[in-house]
Design a protein that fits this description.
136 residues, mainly alpha, 2 domains, 75% helix, 7% strand
Length: 136
Amino acid sequence: MTTLLDIDDVCAGNPEAARQLAVMREAFAEMEAKVAALTQERSTEYGIALQRIIELEAELDEERRRFDNAMRNEMIETKEYTDGTTATGVSPLPDRSPVQQATEEALRHLDDIEAVMGGRNGSSIQLRSLILSIGA
């Protein structure tokens, strides 16, 4: 088996072979340096990518924790109103039922109309009775 030392011995007597061997060794050294640089570059890129993956996983875990906490904090409640209706939903539910809220709004509008007309009259009193009976 021929070794590098043997090649050096063979080339020692042949200047052209020695020159070609030197060129080949220089080219080999350059290729090794390029491979080392590329390996280092890729290693750095992979390290950066791996670090970003770790950061994204941490962000995802934090978002999951926030979501879980939000879901625990949103309590579902059921409320029975004085008019007999029942509502179920995310807490807090309104103090008055939708019917009670609509009745109050209708009465507020009627109060505004009566204020413009100078007070209550027979028609507005009848309308007030009708609103209260529908809302009851």
